[in-house]
Amino acid sequence: MVKRSRIIAFFLLVVLLGGMMGTTGEKIVKDIKLGLDLQGGFEILYEVKPIKEGEKITKDVLLSTVSALNKRINVLGVSEPRIDVEGNDRIRVQLAGVKDQNKAREILSTEAKLTFRDVHDNVLMDGSDLVEGGAKQTFDDKGKPSVGIKLKDANKFKQVTEKVLSMAPNNVLVIWLDFEEGVDSYAKEVGKEHPKFISAAQVNEVFNQTDVSIVGNFTVEEAKQLADLLNAGALPVELKEIYSTSVGAQFGEQALQKTILAGIIGIALAFLFMLVFYRLPGIVAVVTLSVYIYLILLIFDWMNGVLTLPGIAALILGVGMAVDANIITYERIKDELKLGKSLMSAYRIGNRGSFGTILDANITTIIAGVVLFAYGTSSVKGFATMLIISVLASFITAVYGTRILLGLLVKSRLFDKKPHYFGVNPKDILNIAQVTDDTDVPTKFARLDFVKRSKLFFAISGAMVVIGLVLLFTAKLNLGIDFSSGTRIDLMSETSLTTEEVKQELNKLRLEPKDIVLSGNKNEMAIVRFLGVLDQNEISQLKSHFKEKYGIEPNVSTVSPTVGKELARNAFISVLIASVGIIIYVTVRFEMYMALAAIVALLHDAFFIIAFFSLTRLEVDLTFIAAVLTIVGYSINDTIVTFDRIRYLMKKRKVKTADDLKDVVNKALQQTFGRSVNTVLTVVFTVVALLLFGSEAIRNFSFALLAGLVSGTYSSLFIAAQLWFVWKAKQLKKGKQKREQLEVEPEV
User: Key word Cell membrane present in the record (predicted)?
Assistant: First the structure.
């Protein structure tokens, strides 16, 4: 009897979810904060150094520096900046949405140490003599912009002016900002058109007052900036840039638009695939995946998280991976239907049988995500955060959401005699009266003998490893500045660029590039790399020059040799820790041989990606490591599904010989082959969409994912299970020989 109330409940629940997402989704999206790579801005990692020899950088000094930096950021008017202390002597500053990046960098790094000196560079007064917050932009008696400051002690200023007056004809009071001892001098600067000192006023009388005006060739904006700097206070330390990245606003806007478009296309293709291949459960998958996307954005908003470009990529990739959980469940239900079970029975067994597999697969991906978060930089942390949230959200929606919605349809009894609604051909359904515990699930791949050709697969992989090693030793990797240190500039123009044109423009700035690579559909973008690290002034000139030339502010990233080595070391450590963590987990949940086989497959996949990048000369940067670890997590998912089926079949059958073992492995691979292909297709849809339509900034990341997906599917089907079979067969043979020996010994 059809229970229409269940159908009505299903539609009401779908309408309720759709209404909730429709009415609140837009507000959630607007509230989510965008990272600097999506709205423009910059990130700088400073090494904190003492100003005077012998001084130590303590926690209090770092906190005092953070406080001073916060005051300066307030001057800039940047909303919600992020300043983090890292280690014992580093501070990371992230400013998203800042309009004038050159000005912001200058204000942040300027020590703002004001000194009053004579013409012989002797200090007469300094910033400690100023009243806190007493500086303001004013105008002098000629109407020119100036800076008014208030002194603590009028008598001290009287003594200073008396001393300078007595030095006639050199009765000049020179005011400096950030005077460098042993480098700067009045004598060197006085003849220059634009001297480094702020002003040099002739003292013709003694002043006994606290209100002093600093007069120079200021604009109103410059005078206001100096007053704000003085009010913010001098930095108690010296800040040295050791890592920086800046993104122009137009770059960020374009990256956001492109990646969202890629996401829509990739997700739409995944949805279409689920509808065509799984039909009714596919409709449920579309609903639960839509809720999954909404839930991720909601959680991210609650966390007050910052959405970055890699974060959006993780969200889009997460949809493809979330489909995996649906496919595992749906394939188990289809298997039970093919064995002649009723729809209700197939639904219950399928849900129960798939839960452990989904849990194991998700935990291994979370291990990779946690390692990425622990060892990654800010953009990689954004990717890792989104990846972890995606896994958790997909578990909730794909497991519990699917059970509720699909359960309503199944329990309505409307589809009891309609297996085609679940993607099952009635011709493939066995007579349940003839089904026993040893009956295998009918599959299109029953004739494939995976184990028979295991030596061929091992040989192919061995050859790939040898070729990869030769490539690595000869061509090596095309390391980006993240690992080799240096400077990278991303230029963008509204018209096509040429290598010669870009080189000529750089020569005007007296800059010699290491290489120039054109990109974009019409060569409207150029990637320029330098061996050395450009300083703040060079970056400022470069940004101003190309913004004036092309109308678009370029992206500039710098990595010092110290940080480059650290990033390379952390990348190696992160892959190692993730691998060890997965070995331990798979050993506990399965067995040691399965764990070892899984790790060999993972190393195979990681090496394949590395060899692919060496062959194609694609740049290896931090997102490459994120891609490798993502594939490590994803590939183990596929392997776990196969091992789970092997374990299931081992419990059903008595395995005594190598032939029995071979049959189990073959059956497991035959039964999971379709699921592996379907899963990789849904993820490939999203990755290819990112590759074709996404931002140039994550193009290499997408290439690495695509290469890893192909390799991961191959290794799960043709390497991991076969390796386990070889090792397990040897163990079985040794056990048999030992038993035979024990049986013979009593007779002797």
Answer: yes
330 and 363, same domain (yes or no): yes
Q: Are 179 and 194 in contact (CB under 8 A)?
A: no
| Chain segment 588-597, per-residue pLDDT in tens | 888 888 888 8
Contact present, 245 and 42 (Cβ < 8 Å): yes
Answer whether residue 394 is part of any domain: yes
Q: Are residues 606 and 621 in the same domain?
A: yes
Give the residue numbers spanning the domain of 514: 486-559
**Which two tokens mark 564?**
């480059």
Both tokens assigned to 181: 């001892």
Q: Is 268 helix (H, G, I), strand (E, B) or coil?
A: helix
How far is it, in rounded angstroms, from Cα 700 to Cα 627? 9
3-state secondary structure of 557: strand
Number of domains in the chain: 4
Residues 519 and 635 placed together within one structural domain of the fold = no
Q: Cβ(95)–Cβ(41) under 8 Å?
A: yes
Q: Which residues lie closer than 8 Å to 180 by C-beta, 6 or more apart? A: none
pLDDT classification of 118: cutoffs 50, 70, 90? very high
The 10s digit of each residue's pLDDT in 223-245 is 887 787 777 766 778 888 888 88
Nearest to 71 by CA among 228, 238, 229, 232: 232
* Distance separating alpha carbons of residues 340 and 83, to the nearest angstrom: 62
**Alpha helix (H) ranges present in 248-342?**
249-278, 280-302, 309-338
Question: What pLDDT does 284 receive?
Answer: 93
C-alpha to C-alpha distances, 381 to 387, 576, 592, 634, nearest whole angstrom: 10, 18, 31, 18
Burial class (CB in 10 A: 0-12, 13-18, 19+), 655: middle
Strand 515-519 versus strand 525-530 pairing type? antiparallel
Distance CA 56, CA 477 (A): 40
- Bridge-based pairing state of the strands 555-559 and 486-492: antiparallel
Closest among 27, 10, 141 to 403, alpha carbons compared = 10
Is a pLDDT exceeding 50 seen at residue 748?
A: no
Amino acid letter, 335:
D
Sorted by sequence, the CB contacts under 8 Å of residue 114 that are 6+ apart come out as: 126, 127, 130, 175, 176, 177, 230, 234
Q: What are phi and psi of 111, to 5 degrees?
A: -70, -25
| Residue 634, Cβ density class (10 Å: 0-12 exposed, 13-18 middle, ≥19 buried) | buried
pLDDT value, residue 347: 92
Q: How far is residue 355's CA from residue 328's CA, in Å, rounded to a whole number?
A: 9
**Same structural domain, 463 and 418:** no
Task: State the burial class of residue 391 (Cβ atoms within 10 Å of its Cβ: 0-12, 13-18, 19+).
Answer: buried
The Cα–Cα gap between 253 and 32 comes to 15
> Which two structure tokens, joined as six digits, stand for 90?
């580093």
Instruction: Provide CB contacts within 8 A for 99, sequence distance 6+.
Output: 249
Would you say residue 322 has pLDDT above 50?
yes
Between CA 654 and CA 656 the distance in angstroms is 6
DSSP SS3 for 257: helix
> Based on the domain organization, do 467 and 492 belong to the same domain?
no
Q: How far is the C-alpha of 487 from the C-alpha of 495, rounded, in Å?
A: 24
State the CB neighbour count (10 A cutoff) for residue 654.
6
pLDDT digits (tens, 9 = 90+) for 183-233: 889 998 888 888 888 888 888 888 888 888 877 777 887 788 778 777 776
Distance CA 636, CA 676 (A): 12
495 CB-near residues (< 8 Å, 6+ apart): 524
Q: What CATH number does residue 524 fall under?
A: 3.30.70.260
